[in-house]
Specification:
single chain; about 290 residues; alpha+beta; Alpha-Beta Plaits; four-stranded antiparallel sheet; 4 strands; about 10% strand
């Protein structure tokens, strides 16, 4: 099939997905969790369903002057409170007051506090890890394929997936209050490696075909490589997507957005490896020929 004659259509589809997310990133940014901003997560468990006890929990926090950002259910009998840093004495007061209000003393399951300094340090390390990973991937692909255009195009396709994922979560953060945490960072780094893996498979097929068919044009070689690797990429990705869908539907609430990030990244990575990385390589090659 002649995929490369539609390369500008593929770029347009990518732009239609990336531009709304990019607008959201610039205007609303991402909603960081306390992992980045600093604060406390307190998880409590009741013996009965939380149900209408959320109002009593909110009243308790207001009475004790606890500056909280959200109260979420974590299963039928659990609640998750996110607040500015609080002490162990505050936790004891919350549990004691709640016991008086609802007639039951909740069990403390989790009490984690992250300082704002540690949160800022985590942000710096996250960006450093992504940039460092991109540099290593660029140099490795460049070295393996003996030409810089392979490394640059692979990294551009990788950043395509990053922008898609960041844009989706920026929109979710603005409209649904979804926050990013350290699990999101893990998802981003995982997806970058997945994206490059599929891209290298396509590039390797192009390199093999150039040796076997020296007289064939680069565009035809790219079409041949995409045609041969596309079924394998789709089959491979579908096994991952089905597993992630099962985790998303049946897994716990704490893993929900981590799994969703992997889902978005897997779909985007499968698309970019074939319909972004290969067309970018073709555009680069055509530009080189025109320059000569």
């Amino acid at each position: 099939m002649k995929f490369m004659k539609h390369k500008w259509l593929f770029f347009l589809i990518s732009a239609l997905v990336i531009i709304p997310g990019l607008f959201s990133l610039i205007k609303w940014r991402l909603q960081p969790s306390i992992d980045f901003t600093g604060g406390t997560i307190l998880e409590l468990e009741f013996t009965q369903a939380v149900g209408d006890r959320l109002s009593a929990i909110s009243e308790t926090l207001n009475e004790l002057k606890i500056d909280y950002s959200s109260i979420q259910t974590s299963g039928e009998k659990r609640i998750l409170i996110k607040a500015k840093p609080i002490t162990r004495e505050d936790v004891s007061s919350i549990i004691g007051t709640l016991a008086e209000k609802v007639g039951e003393k909740p069990a403390e399951l989790r009490f984690d506090t992250v300082g704002p300094t540690l949160g800022k340090e985590l942000i710096k390390k996250t960006f450093f890890a992504i940039l460092l990973g991109a540099c290593f991937i660029l140099l490795y692909v460049w070295k393996q394929f003996k030409q810089p255009m392979y490394g640059v195009c692979a990294v551009l396709a990788m950043f395509h997936d990053s922008l898609v994922l960041l844009g989706v979560f920026s929109l979710l953060g603005h409209f649904s209050g979804v926050e990013i945490d350290t699990l999101f960072v893990t998802a981003v780094l995982t997806i970058l490696s997945f994206s490059v893996h599929d891209t290298v498979v396509v590039y390797d097929r192009i390199r093999e075909s150039r040796k076997k068919f020296p007289g064939v044009t680069f565009v035809d070689l790219a079409d041949k490589a995409v045609t041969e690797t596309l079924p394998r990429s789709i089959n491979n990705s579908m096994t991952i997507i089905l597993m992630l869908l099962a985790l998303y539907l049946l897994g716990g609430s704490t893993m929900k957005w981590f799994v969703f990030a992997l889902l978005v990244g897997t779909v985007s990575g499968t698309y970019s490896s074939t319909f972004t990385a290969a067309p970018l390589l073709v555009v680069w090659e055509q530009f080189k020929r025109r320059k000569k």
